[in-house]
Structure formats: structure tokens, C-alpha cells
Amino acid sequence: MRLYLINPSNPLVAITKVKESRWNRYRVWKPLGLMVLAGLTPPEWEISIVDENLGAPDYSAMPRPDLVGITAFTSQANRAYEVAAYFRSLGVPVVMGGIHATMCLEEVMERVDSVVTGEAESIWPEVLEDARHGSLKRRYDGGLAEIDDVPLARHNLLNTGYTFGAIQTTRGCPLNCTFCSVTAFNGAHYRLRPIPDIVREFQLIREKYVLAVDDNLIGTRPEHIARAKDLFRAMAQANLLKEWVAQTTINFADDEELLSLAAKAGCRGVFIGFESLSQEGLRKIGKKFNLLKGRDFRASVQRIQRHKILVVGSFIIGLDIDEPGIGKRIAEVASRYGVDILNTLFLTPLPGTRLWDQMKSEDRIALNRFPEDWKYYTLTFPVARYKHLSLDGIIAEMISCDRSFYSMPRVLRRVCGNLWQRRKPLISLVGNLSYRRNLQLNRKAYADFKRYSGNKHNSVRES
Ligand code: B12
Ligand code: SF4
Description:
By secondary structure, this protein is an alpha/beta fold. The protein has 16 helices and 14 strands.
């Protein structure tokens, strides 16, 4: 039995633009969900994982599979449907799962033979058995997996073409920020994989660099932090020789022992969502965690960096309190905090989030011709109507933010600082140049986007 597991690409996403900027090559991450599905698949299935982010293959030149499984973020849905239509035209059954299939079940059901909602660990073997007998059901629901049932991912099935391997050590997030799908999809309960499984899985990864895909590697409560320390100790003891990056909340900075153990275990960079410059903005999006009284973000960033760990800071443009000038202010504040790389995104109502419900009820979802418009739900296009910013206005704010933060003098100052402190200057250089190069690509993308979205976009105040 031959199984293709496919990660569709979206040509609007920067990482696919390798021809235009070779730096993007370093930012293609492995589709871990498909490697986990492969780990759940019995040996009688011959599996090929196709990651279209490395280039879409000529499917007609490949042997006919018995089953196709497709994953998709919302931004990949259009391409997922094209791929599904192609295989269905050959009579090959197509199953789709992942975040978009879960949040937009009805839309997906119209376009594939079978949909798996939720996490797949408990249900995928049954789906395969049904497929083998030609009796696929229209819908399966995996719910939330027992965390001990998460198998070792089949890392060997995607062996070349990536700088980073991928691993997951926890699932779920209790914080439920309004714009984020994680709590809705993976639950509020923070589930921890057994430490020996994680160490063993690290040992299976060929790449020297690894992305820990966890939404919050260290968690929020004292017992989570204690467990993170145990994990880092076990990783250091296993002498993995890996260098890794992860997402955390700002409380990562609050515990010197945690930082020191993380660095010893190979941590070289963290991605932290600062999201908004103001307390009111943080309250509006529900990121209460960043509101802890008396936090000095600059000092927090510096404490992390002292352990030779890079900090990527993420902010959102388009909150209801954001007014003209917000782009430049974000760049200034991020520079003041001293982050090594800045990632600013447009506030985007993703299906299944609280923000989606709110914006829908206020008729503020501007790009709402689905499924076509999903391709713009990359967080790099302003798909909604914003309170104080028109379409031109919000794009101008994003350009001003990026131009200011990634001006050549600032890039050089940051990279020289990294060099001086011996804090991964090469990664910092590649990251900064990659973002800087994408500024030019983004200009063209914004111009095309404005033509596409026409006049749907008046700001809420103007409309
Ligand atoms: C790692 C990651 C990335 C990596 C992608 C790596 C990759 N190629 O997959 C990078 C950094 C590139 C990335 C980019 C983006 N991401 Co991202 N990312 C994640 C993250 C943190 C973890 C995903 C992961 O690996 N999980 C671990 C695996 C094991 O879980 P899984 O993929 O969900 O798979 C399980 C089930 O879903 C199911 N399943 C999945 N696929 C299939 C298929 C079949 C057939 C079946 C049966 C089951 C099944 O089975 C698996 C096992 O249970 C998630 C958050 C999250 N917790 O999911 C956000 C998340 C998926 N990203 C999100 C977003 C918005 C993006 C971006 C669009 C925007 C951005 N700038 O971040 C881009 C777009 C990329 C693109 N190509 O279009 C959103 C998606 C929301 C949505 N509705 O689409 C999430 C949920 C975060 C959020 N804030 O809400 N991301
Ligand atoms: S943005 Fe981060 S902290 Fe907020 S719900 Fe999502 S994963 Fe949790």
C-alpha cells in the first residue's frame, strides 16, 4: 500500500521564494505533523512525504498511491484543494487533517473524501485500516491525544534540504490569546511528553540545528519550569550536540538556573511574542502574561542574551488601539528592548479564534471570499478592517516598521554586537539579511495585494 503525505505550499509565503532570496532557504521548516503521522503508520504502508515548500513535484510522474493524506494551515488551503482535486481525478482517495480541516470542517469536507479533525494519534491507524478496506468514513475526530501516545516522528523520511530538524516536547497552551488558534486546537491543558522519549527523538534527528515547535517550551507555572529544567538537564547529560531554537513566553528570563540549563542543553535562540507596546493592547488581545507588573523587557531580553541565546521578538500591527505611527514606534521599542530579530505581523482573524468571532460579528473581515482568500491568511497581509488604519495606512506602517528596524546601520550595529558578545553572529546576520531582503519582495506583494483586495478595506473609523 502506497501512501503520500503532502504539505502543500503557498507561493505567497516568503520561505518558498528561494529563487528571489537564497536566505529563505534557511527558513524552510520540516512539516513535523506529517512525520508524526508517518510514525503512527503501520509498516505495510510505503510512505513518501512531499513537502511542496521545497518545490512541488510532478505528481503525474510519480507512482499512483493508494491513499493521499494532506495537511494544511489555513494559508495553504487553496493549494491543498488543488492537490486533492488532482488525486481524486485519478480515483485516489484523499484524507485531509490538521488545523484548517479542524477549524473549517464543512468547507474541507466538500473537497476531500475524508476529514480528520483534531490530533491524529488516536485515530490514524483506524483511518488507514478503513482505507485499506475501501471503507473510509467521511469524518474522524482524534480529539486531544494522550501525550504518552505521541510516537517518535519518522525524521528519516525527510532527510535532505533542510537546515533545521523539528521536534515537539509539549502540547497545548492555557493562555488562549484572542488571535491564536493553539488553545482552541491543542487545548488549554499543557501536556508534557515523557523526557526519555524527547531525548531519544533528538538522537534520531540528523540536522545539527533543531526547531522545538512547542508553542511555549517552558510553560507558565512553577511545576512547568521545574520540568523544563529536568528536560534540559537530561538533554545536556545525553550530550546531544544539537543547537536549537524554541518559542517561549517572557518568563523564560526570570530564572537564571533555567537559562543556564537551557544554554547548556543547546538553546541558541528563542522566539518571544511581545505583541503590543501598550498594556491596553495586551489586555485587548488577552496576552495577560506579558502584563506582569514591573517587568522591564529590556532587562529581560538582556538576561536571556547573556546566556548567548538570540531573541526574536514578535509584535502585531492592527490592534484597535494602533494609530498612525505605530510601525515606527514598534521598531524603536524593539530596538530599545535589544531584540536580535524583529518579526512584525498583521492582526489576522484566523478561523476558530476568539478574534475571528469578534471581527466577524463586527463585519470586519475584509477578505472573505473563501476559499480563494485563505491564501492571504499568512499574517503578512492585512485581511481585516482595522480601527484607525486604512489599507494603505496599515501597509505603510508595516513598511516603516521593517525599514526602520532593518536599516543597514541598525543591522550592522546588531550583528557587530552579536560578534562582540560571541552570541551567534552568523545566525543573526543570516536572519537580519533574510528579513531585509524580504522587504523588497514584500513591496511587490503588497502592490499585488492592494490590486486584489480593491476597495474592501476602509478602516472601521472611515467606513
Ligand atoms: C511549527 C509551526 C510553523 C512552522 C511550519 C513548519 C511546518 N512546515 O509545518 C513555520 C515557522 C514555518 C510556521 C509558519 C506559519 N505558521 Co505556523 N505553527 C507552527 C506551530 C508552532 C507548530 C506546528 C507543529 O509542528 N505542530 C506539531 C505537529 C505534530 O502537530 P500538527 O501539525 O498539528 O499535526 C497533528 C494534527 O494536526 C494532525 N494532522 C496534521 N496534518 C494532518 C494531515 C492528515 C492527513 C491527518 C490525518 C492528520 C493531520 O495530526 C498531527 C498529530 O496529531 C503551530 C502551532 C500548533 N500548536 O500547531 C503554528 C501554527 C500552525 N502556525 C500558524 C500560522 C498562522 C502560520 C503562518 C501562516 C503565519 C506565521 N507567520 O506564523 C505561517 C505560514 C506557513 C505556510 N507555509 O503557509 C497557525 C495556523 C492557524 C491556521 N488556522 O492556519 C498556528 C496554529 C499558530 C497560531 N498562532 O495559531 N508555522
Ligand atoms: S499566542 Fe502563545 S501564549 Fe497566546 S495562546 Fe497562542 S501559544 Fe499561547
